Amino acid sequence: MERSIPITMKDIARALGVSVATVSRALRDSPRISEEQRNKINRYAREHNYFPNVLAESLRNSRKKPLKIIGVIVPQFAHFYFSSVLSGIEQEAISHGYTIIVGQSNEQFDREVLLCQRFYEHKVCGIIVSQAKDTQKYDHFKKLMDHGVPLVFYDRICTGIDTNRGAFNAVSHLINTGCRRIAYYGSPMTLEISKNRYNGYRDALLKNGLKPDDRFFRICDNRADAEAITPEILSQEDIPDAFFAVNDDTAI
Questions:
Q1: pTM for this predicted structure
Q2: Can you spell out the DSSP letters for the chain?
């Protein structure tokens, strides 16, 4: 079936023999246009399934008021954690009259940089981002901030914010239940959040008189890697009596 081409204000103006400005004012219910003319134009627009180009209108008015569009960067759509966060972001954004546009970095630094550039070009009013695993340079984030684009980081951050308390509490709980050989499955140590979580794990061990054991330390943050690595861990003479996993996917 042939797809119909959406009509524009120019099409309406041409069909009714009026100017585009008149159509625009009528669709905005401007009192500068007679009621009879407004009704005629709006009726024609409804009958021909006319929908305004919200983005174009927003761009025209962007100097008066910023676009209510937020860019969101997720490392992976398929990961339950990130999809859950995205759902919450969208719900909260809509409740405040904002729209979100979403991009997936697929854990690639170059793609993350490209998404930041695209979001900036689309004049988003802010960006919410969880950085890719291999992101070690932050010039693209600094560029956005230098241009006045607000940034909010979640889960993975590029600052020195301390996020090790959760790991410290979890490992302390394991120790309090009698565990002494606790394996650590974490994300690459290039991520600040990974360093902080490992420090929380290590601090809990040391505080309770236990020495971190390199035999039980693995870079492993997904189910496939965990299934490949765990048999080797369990083949050692002294097997772990507990595991600290960086996320639910790895724990499963």
A1: 0.51
A2: -PPPPPP-HHHHHHHHT--HHHHHHHHTT-TTS-HHHHHHHHHHHHHTT----HHHHHHHTTTTS---EEEEEES-SSSHHHHHHHHHHHHHHHHTT-EEEEEE-TT-HHHHHHHHHHHHHTT-SEEEE---TT----HHHHHHHHTT--EEE-SS-SS-----HHHHHHHHHHHHTT---EEEEE--TTSHHHHHHHHHHHHHHHHTT----GGGEEE--SHHHHHHHHHHHHTSSS--SEEEESSHHHH-
